[in-house]
Design a protein that fits this description.
four-stranded antiparallel beta sheet; single chain; three-stranded mixed beta sheet; Potassium Channel Kv1.1, Chain A; 7 helices; alpha+beta
Length: 215
């Protein structure tokens, strides 16, 4: 029977592996064409051809298909890639499970640089989105404060503070002395200062909770 060249259903191309990938040594039977060693800046990564080819357009996929890239190998037969291995881990893990996972001290810019070098489109978009979100949250802080001053009498004070609507915070109370004289009891007048934080929403309009003040 002739060699079937179809690759549907993930079946290996029997007898045609040698066309796709020139091995410098004979790998143990059964591992041929599945595992790929990459030597990235001196650090060796072991992964599968399937993982590297998740992103069809990537440099890594083209590399392990061995079509157009005549890449150098080290003495173990690993592909030599002159890039920083620090950022290669997240790249490889992204190809493995589709998520971007970074250590807290790892710069997203560094991973972005590698994602662009290896030409992994979906990852480039994820990192750019993340960086934009960060920039956005930075511009969010600090929120603007709005202050209002309310004038009230002593007996109205507790009622007013208890009915303050959501988002308003009690800041300060100023006693402005008694100005009213009802018979023999003096009513002390107070100025009550309240504040509210206003966050700028992306549209440039300041967003306040939609429910109206209860006061």
């Amino acid at each position: 029977g002739g060699v079937r060249m179809g690759m549907e259903g993930g079946e290996e191309m029997q007898g045609a592996v040698g066309l796709r990938c020139t091995w410098d040594f004979a790998p143990p039977a059964g591992t041929q064409g599945k595992w790929v060693r990459l030597n990235v800046g001196g650090t060796v990564f072991l992964t599968t051809r399937q993982t590297l080819c998740r992103e069809q357009k990537s440099f890594l996929c083209r590399l392990c298909q061995g079509e157009e890239l005549q890449s150098d190998r080290d003495e173990t037969g690993a592909y030599l890639i002159d890039r920083d291995p620090t950022y290669f881990g997240p790249i490889l893990n992204f190809l493995r499970h589709g998520k971007l996972v970074l250590d807290k001290d790892m710069a997203e810019e560094g991973v972005l640089e590698e994602a662009e070098f290896y030409n992994i489109g979906p990852l480039i978009r994820i990192i750019k989105d993340r960086m934009e979100e960060k920039d956005y949250t930075v511009t969010q802080v600090p929120p603007k404060h709005v202050y209002r001053v309310l004038q009230c009498q002593e007996e109205e004070l507790t009622q007013m503070v208890s009915t303050m609507s959501d988002g308003w915070r009690f800041e300060q109370l100023v006693n402005i002395g008694s100005s009213y004289n009802y018979g023999n009891e003096d009513q002390t007048e107070f100025l009550c200062v309240v504040s509210k934080e206003l966050y700028n929403s992306p549209s440039g309009l300041s967003s306040e909770p939609s429910h109206k003040a209860k006061v």
